[in-house]
């Protein structure tokens, strides 16, 4: 399954394009623009599993840095500051990574 099976390619392109500048990433706006906020909880979990590149059941800090690439392969990496901000927003239990349920809450709060 690919991201475009779940989200519109044009929405992905626009959302990634809106955050091309370093330090501009805003996960709340991004999830809204990409159409993830409107998706069912099941579809949000499918997106989580696509972003969980190592299939560990979690999106670790390193994977978060490449989150935009999970939506569009030629997108930029997040900066260290953006990555840490996203991790802090999503890591509700403080274990240093984002699980599927935490990701669902992160999207729902967008």
Automatic annotation (TrEMBL):
Key words of the record: Calcium, Metal-binding, Repeat
Domain EF-hand, chain residue ranges per copy: 39-74, 78-110
Protein name from the UniProt record: Parvalbumin
Similarity comment: Belongs to the parvalbumin family.
Entries under SMART domains matching the protein: EFh
Job description of the protein: In muscle, parvalbumin is thought to be involved in relaxation after contraction. It binds two calcium ions.
Domain of life: Eukaryota
Metal-binding listed as a keyword: yes
Metal-binding as UniProt keyword: yes
């Amino acid at each position: 399954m690919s991201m475009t099976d779940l989200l519109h390619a044009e929405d992905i392109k626009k959302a990634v394009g809106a955050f091309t500048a370093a330090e501009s990433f805003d996960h709340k706006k991004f999830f809204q623009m990409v159409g993830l906020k409107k998706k069912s909880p099941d579809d949000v979990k499918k997106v989580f599993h696509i972003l969980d590149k190592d299939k560990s059941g979690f999106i670790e800090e390193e994977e978060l840095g490449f989150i935009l690439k999970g939506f569009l392969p030629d997108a930029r990496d997040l900066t260290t500051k953006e990555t840490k901000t996203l991790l802090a927003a999503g890591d509700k239990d403080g274990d240093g990574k984002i699980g599927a349920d935490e990701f669902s809450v992160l999207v729902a709060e967008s």
